[in-house]
Design a protein that fits this description.
The protein has about 230 residues and is mostly helical. The protein is built from 8 helices and no strands. It has 4 domains: about 60 residues, no CATH class; about 25 residues; about 45 residues; about 35 residues.
């Protein structure tokens, strides 16, 4: 037997590492199985021109796979042999195992036929699933937008305190109060000056003291003295 054909007969079509992308046998695998590192692709094609992963047939003298009977052929040959033996002995031919059915046993129910969906039914099912998923994502989107608004509002409230732009400055507050008091004093002084000008125009003599100071400096009758502080 040719060592190339013998190596090809040992290749397993289920193993991807033994075949190229186009279904030709890998040369490294053929060389290893044949025990000959000098084999070329041209020699392989010359020995088995139609051999490939999809066509494992080799020339008849070397087709080891086709020479070996499969399990169905062995079982069929055995059954035929038993039938011939039974005929020679005038006996009933043997019944295949599994074909005898007990009357007491319930009949085997046949599997329900599988319903094949039409293209329209498949599209409708996919459309319904998309609608359900879209509704779920929309609900999640609304919840996320609501939460984002709440976080943004709280972030805006905390930002001035974190950055220091809204920190309470006691000195600024004190200066503001002082400016307010100074403004009120200025308004009083202007009012007092205008009041003095009006009295002078009327010929009324004034001591220059405020009405409050005049009342406090006025002499009081006996028993009406202010208590000492």
């Amino acid at each position: 037997m040719s060592n190339i054909l013998q190596a090809l007969s040992q290749l397993d079509p289920e193993q991807d590492n033994l075949w190229t992308a186009d279904g030709s046998p890998m040369m490294d695998a053929v060389k290893q199985l044949a025990g000959d590192e000098t084999i070329t692709r041209a020699q392989l094609i010359n020995e088995a021109p139609t051999f490939s992963r999809m066509n494992m047939e080799l020339p008849e003298p070397y087709n080891i796979r086709s020479m070996a009977p499969d399990d169905d052929e062995i079982a069929q040959a055995k059954a035929m042999s038993e039938i011939e033996d039974a005929k020679e002995k005038d006996e009933e031919p043997p019944v295949a195992v599994g074909s005898i059915q007990n009357d007491d046993e319930p009949p085997v129910e046949e599997a329900a036929p599988v319903k094949v969906k039409t293209r329209g039914e498949a599209y409708q099912e996919e459309y319904d699933l998309i609608n359900v998923r879209y509704a779920e994502l929309t609900s999640q989107k609304d919840d996320l937008e609501k939460e984002l608004k709440q976080l943004a509002r709280r972030q805006a409230q905390l930002s001035p305190y974190v950055t220091g732009s809204n920190e309470y400055d006691h000195r600024k507050d004190m200066l503001g109060r002082k400016a307010y008091i100074d403004g009120q004093n200025k308004i009083r002084m202007e009012r007092h000056e205008k009041h003095g000008q009006v009295l002078a125009a009327l010929g009324v003599k004034t001591s220059g003291a405020s009405p409050l100071d005049q009342a406090l400096s006025r002499k009081t009758a006996r028993g009406m003295a202010r208590p000492a502080r």
